[in-house]
Write a sequence for this structure.
């Protein structure tokens, strides 16, 4: 059983939902990312998504794109991300999964990537540009290593295909709330809850919702129909303030910490 | 009606396979959000190939609106200058809008209507695909948005003006290197949000399946006409065929009908930029490795972490770090030979053709001409080399003058 399976089993037994923040590795530098992950863990976040910066992210809106650019311009390399992760995962209890382009996994080699990620204490991967049709090899290797391969289902996914994706997924299903790219939204689609209820009725996997989520109102709508919520841009936007002004890191840390507290309270309060 | 212009079953019709692969290359590496639209596009495209009304409509447009067939022209003075094989140009520059791009945008605009979609987006580098898309959309009355890198807007002003006059909205792309690659990223992001109502008219044989298939098939009119015209003029096929390769659409269209004609050597010409150093060229097949970019598994210029390299070419249309998956397949099977041509070689070829033939070729095309002359010099006088004259160079006049002034300043 993977760390992610254990997490959701425990949450289920406690009647709780997961809050899952996203941070970009190396934005503005890896030392900051390490401190931020430790802070989010201390606040009680359940799992963190670590974004591996990529030069050509097509599923990401301006906020996360800009964070990737900042990180890469700062010289972040894959091996330094893994070094940082291995130090942090030794200290924290929340599992970490990477959000990573298949371009990066392929270049390193699937076996090598998985080995390095596992050695760094990372529990799974979300590969946003690798649809289920292309995922056989990676899914088989992840399964044999008990490394979660979290796949995405979207509002444009036909239902028969959603079933096929659910079968290939381990850890949890990432349900994309909107048809679009990452970024904060004021409103979520009206049929989101219905779609989640349908998915709930056909799979036993935990279902976590991401893209667009940033507000406490969103939590109210979703907490009854999802097992976890993922928040990216709303956090990365706050972290951008540290990139622009290196002197206010403590302030940014507190800002993000406070935001996470608020979301956690809304989800499980 | 039997089409003069449209795809017939080809000896290589088994590719791409059911997963959109040309050998190991191709596939679909895009977010799940886009998969349903790609499935719909694939289904509608295959159905349209067997729909006589659709084929007739496109056929008539290619004849009366584009002006096909494009001539096969003997470049007599250039041939004499080189002193080798006869050089013939396949005149795609004489198409309406001045390049091969219109062959694909009309077909894709018809597919847009067939799918019931109400809006078109496209990326453009040199602006030729943008102009061809804006033209097709104006013809059918479809609103269109063109993504173009700021650097390309600067160096291809005449095409920017044309697109605006044709009613297209231009979205300047200010991220990354502000060139073609970034324009593709931005168009894909638009499509992520607009996919239900919008068709993305991709300009080259790149991107996720079925784009490399569809664009190749619409461009294959170039090669089919060349075969027919060669048989009429020479009573046989050419002895070599040369085309430039950025993403590779004019080359794929020229080469595809020749692939089964294994006696005919095919030469693709990539942008060699200023040097072989990373970041100073755009020769993905010559210097790159297989990897993933823009939804497809193909040769790509990347660093050891999988981050896309910066690239350079004087020509905006070839200034791209990837290449169509079918070209990667042809490279791996050895069916096509790929050469790399430097900026200065292309500029010299431009001058030579302008002054000896009275034709201003596009800077992209000038790469093919430079290496086509090399191929001609390697061959005897009774042989025939066909170069795909993919586009006209009026758009480049200002930029070429600027590059010449720069070079002159360096010399003094």
């Amino acid at each position: 059983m993977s760390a992610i399976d254990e997490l959701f089993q425990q949450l289920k037994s406690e009647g709780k939902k997961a809050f899952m923040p996203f941070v970009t590795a190396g934005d503005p530098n890896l030392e900051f990312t390490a401190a931020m992950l430790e802070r989010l863990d201390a606040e009680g976040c359940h799992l963190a998504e670590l974004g591996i910066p990529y030069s050509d992210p097509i599923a990401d809106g301006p906020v996360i794109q800009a964070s990737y650019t900042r990180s890469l311009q700062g010289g972040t390399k894959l091996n330094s991300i893994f070094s940082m992760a291995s130090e942090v995962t030794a200290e924290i209890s929340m599992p970490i999964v990477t959000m990573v382009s298949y371009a990066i996994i392929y270049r390193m080699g699937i076996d090598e990537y998985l080995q390095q990620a596992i050695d760094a204490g990372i529990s799974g991967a979300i590969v946003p540009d690798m649809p289920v049709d292309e995922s056989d090899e990676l899914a088989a290797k992840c399964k044999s290593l008990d490394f979660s391969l979290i796949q995405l289902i979207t509002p444009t996914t036909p239902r028969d295909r959603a079933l096929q994706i659910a079968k290939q997924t381990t850890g949890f299903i990432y349900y994309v709330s909107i048809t679009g790219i990452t970024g904060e939204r004021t409103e979520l689609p009206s049929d989101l809850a219905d779609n989640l209820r349908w998915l709930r009725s056909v799979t036993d996997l935990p279902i976590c919702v991401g893209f667009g989520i940033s507000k406490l109102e969103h939590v109210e709508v979703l907490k009854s129909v999802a097992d976890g919520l993922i928040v990216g841009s709303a956090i990365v936007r706050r972290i951008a303030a540290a990139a622009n002004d290196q002197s206010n890191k403590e302030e940014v840390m507190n800002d993000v910490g406070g935001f996470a507290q608020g979301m956690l309270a809304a989800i499980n309060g | 009606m039997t089409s003069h212009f449209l795809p017939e079953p080809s000896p290589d019709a088994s590719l791409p396979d059911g997963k959109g692969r040309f050998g190991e290359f191709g596939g679909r590496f895009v977010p799940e959000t886009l998969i349903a639209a790609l499935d719909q596009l694939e289904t509608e495209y295959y159905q349209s190939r067997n729909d006589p009304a659709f084929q007739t409509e496109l056929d008539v447009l290619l004849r009366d609106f584009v002006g096909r067939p494009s001539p096969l022209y003997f470049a007599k003075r250039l041939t004499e200058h080189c002193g080798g094989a006869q050089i013939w140009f396949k005149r795609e520059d004489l198409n309406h809008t001045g390049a091969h791009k219109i062959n694909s945008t009309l077909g894709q605009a018809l597919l847009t209507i067939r799918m019931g979609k109400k809006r078109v987006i496209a990326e453009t580098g040199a602006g030729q695909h943008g102009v061809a898309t804006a033209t097709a959309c104006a013809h059918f009355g479809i609103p269109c948005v063109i993504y173009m890198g700021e650097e390309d807007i600067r160096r291809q002003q005449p095409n920017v003006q044309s697109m605006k006059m044709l009613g297209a909205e231009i979205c300047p792309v200010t991220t990354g290197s502000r060139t073609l690659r970034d324009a593709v990223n931005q168009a894909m992001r638009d499509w992520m949000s607009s996919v239900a109502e919008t068709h993305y008219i991709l300009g080259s044989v790149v991107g996720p399946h079925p784009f490399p298939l569809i664009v190749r098939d619409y461009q294959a009119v170039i090669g089919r006409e060349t075969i027919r015209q060669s048989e009429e003029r020479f009573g046989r096929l050419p002895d070599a065929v040369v085309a430039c390769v950025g993403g590779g659409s004019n080359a794929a269209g020229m080469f595809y009908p020749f692939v089964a004609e294994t006696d005919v050597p095919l030469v693709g010409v990539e942008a060699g930029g200023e040097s072989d150093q990373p970041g100073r060229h755009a020769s993905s097949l010559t210097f790159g490795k297989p990897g993933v970019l823009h939804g497809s598994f193909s040769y790509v210029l990347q660093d050891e972490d999988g981050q896309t390299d910066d690239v350079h070419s004087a020509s905006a249309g070839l200034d791209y770090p990837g290449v169509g998956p079918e070209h990667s397949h042809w490279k791996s099977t050895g069916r096509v030979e790929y050469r790399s041509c430097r900026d200065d070689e292309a500029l010299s070829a431009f001058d030579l053709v302008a002054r000896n033939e009275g034709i201003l070729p596009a800077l992209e095309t000038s790469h093919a001409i430079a290496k086509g002359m090399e191929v001609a010099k390697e061959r005897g006088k009774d042989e025939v080399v066909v170069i795909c004259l993919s586009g006209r160079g009026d758009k480049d006049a200002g930029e070429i003058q600027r590059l010449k002034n720069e070079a002159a300043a360096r010399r003094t």
In short: The interface with chain A takes residues 19, 27-37, 175-176, 181, 185, 188-189, 192-193, 195-196, 291-295, 297, 300, 302, 304-308 of chain B (CB under 8 Å). The two ends of chain B are 63 Å apart (CA to CA).
